Amino acid sequence: MAIRQRTTKLVARRHDLNYFKRMSPLRAWQWWLAAVALVGAGLWFGGSTLVQGSSALSAGPLSASHAVMGQRCELCHVPVVEATSWTPSFGMRRKVPDSACLACHIAEPHHPMETADKPTCGSCHVEHAGAMHLAAVADSSCTQCHAKLEPRDGVLRVAASVKNFGNDHPEFRPLREAADADRSAAFALRFNHAGHMKAGLTGPHGVVTLECSTCHVAVLNANGRSTGVMAPVNFEKSCRTCHSLQFDAHVAAEAPHDTPEKVRAFVAQAVASFAQEHPEVVDAELKHWPAEAPLPGKTVLPASVVLPPPHTRAEWVSNRTAHAEMILWRGKCGVCHRDLNPESRMPYAPSAIPLMKVEASAQPQHWFTAAVFSHAAHDAVKCEECHAKALTSSNGTDVLMPEIATCRRCHDGRSSPEGPALKAGHAESGCFLCHLYHGRQKPGLTPAGFKLEQMAKR
Amino acid sequence: MIVTVAAMLVGAAIYVPYARYTAVPGGGTSIGLMFGALALGLMLFAALLSVRKRFPIWRIGRAKIWMRAHLWLGFLALPMVLFHAAFHARGTLTAILMWLTIIVVGSGIAGAWLQHTLPTKMYREVPFETIYDQIPVIRGQLAAEARDRATEVNQRLAPGVGPGATVVDTLLGIPDLQAETEGFQRFVEREVGPYLSVEQARRSSLRNREWTREQFDNFRRQFPQTAWDPITAIEEICDEKRQLDHQARLHRLLHAWLLVHLPCSAALILLAIIHAIGALRF
Q1: Are A67 and A86 in contact (CB under 8 A)?
Q2: Phi/psi of residue A206, nearest 5 degrees
Q3: Is the ipTM of this complex over 0.85?
Q4: Chain B residues with CB-CB distance to A37 below 8 A
Q5: pLDDT tens for each residue of B29-39
Q6: Are B81 and B34 in contact (CB under 8 A)?
Q7: Per residue in B42-83, pLDDT tens?
Q8: Minimum Cα–Cα distance from A28: chain B residue
């Protein structure tokens, strides 16, 4: 039981009735700190504005390309044109007009039918989003049209619906559309990749094992660096070492890898020159025809063609030239090129060897017709990882470019171009990586005529 | 709460497709600006609570309604800010604004929880609760009362020598308790006095309720029953002081979050207005 009396009156009497006239220390601290925070925020912003100018209000850091102009907001944020005097003027446009971008950049139209309602530069190339590559636009910029493409003229030139590379992109066009006849017409060559990839082939200097890079090399730029584009296989560099175009045992020079007309002229001139320079050899062979040495390599003449023995030096030259042409057309050129001359398939006189008619090869340098690809960016990967079919292909008409599924093993659509960092274990898969919105020509810069002090910091 | 949840759901329903199909969603887009304007409006409304508190007699809605609106609509500002910025704050000013919003809303939630739970705890654990600002005054009164009660102990143990003593009292004689009385007075001077004069008195043993009870029980055993009432009264004074200390602790806990919430809110409002003006300008 409590000893002390504690009635309401006694408790009330204990209080100092003027207590509310003084601010409680806790409350005083709250207001003091609030005042300090207000002043601090104001001072911080004022200081930032003094040091950085308008960029203190920046919504985010500029891209690396534009960072130099980071303190010159007015270069892009063009002052409002006061055409309508009754509207309030805030001094600057909130969005940067295309004209500000086009003052420096050349941007080709997306396609010839592009009309006035084309998207603005800023709607795809979003600035103030960090050091990201401005060309790395979000897929949604493309899919807003390409997810359900409706051409104005009703003619679809590309896939009607593409939503992303990972799982909603058609197979590459050469694999998707090229018929066998088209491929045959395009390549016009007989080539056995598998045969050339076998180990222990016989070369001019002994046993060799070819690698992809023995024949396939990239086009180099002026600085000697790879452009990322593979050069067409060149006979002189890649084939002649093993596949000699020597046509006569007496003539050391090889035929040029050129048109049949030029080859014929070269052969005739070479044989005639030899006959003129070495009449004793010609005379000896007139007595003992044929008395030739075997040509290097596997050159087999058709058994049905038997050249008659020559009786004069002129006949020797004529027969010898015909012999050389048969070696070339049948045993050399014909290894890879198809002969389109119908006379070649009919019996013919040795005095009138039909001129080979080579089917033109139209092998494209760029397989992608609407995209770009850089082998240089994929140098770290073994060729056969992507071109696996090259190890088994025995037909020159095979399209050996990888299927889209091969690309998706890394470019699996699980990366986002919006962020500066890719998800670990996944390669970039954005549309921009392969497709150029502004055409195949690399967008360039047009001289805007800025002075350095107009661009650099204040 | 219903309004807040509904607004969040509507906001999310607008934001998700917007973020999915916009190249780079952000504050500069039309929908981003809409979220930003909403967020600023909600912040300004939440700030009006301070004005409402300064003028409690204004007939502009009940204080309870204002507080509820402050809590729920203020909380709604955070998702609106996140939707506005598309969960990215890239500039220095925008990053500061986002963090200030998170701190303000976070401290507000913490404060709301504290104010929801601590008053009950205080009601349960501090029966002698008084006005917080009066605690020093009450503490002084308790110290004075304790001194009086200690004097009363002496008087009761030596009625023949104190004021109003009678010859009979003196003659009847009382056991000689001089040593015990001096011990008790020494206890009051060295323990009780300092404990009552200082808030919290962290080094005092009297903060320990059990130890205190043992001490006073010991004194009660030493002295005749005539001295028990003032001794028990001093024990009760110590108990009340202990409760006042507890109340002070709880009170600080109850209001300390405002030391974060209020200054951050002030800075947030100022910088948000600057940000809004900047957004209109650029």
Answers
A1: no
A2: 120, -160
A3: no
A4: 263-264, 266-267
A5: 788 889 999 99
A6: no
A7: 999 988 888 777 777 777 778 788 888 899 989 999 999 999
A8: B259
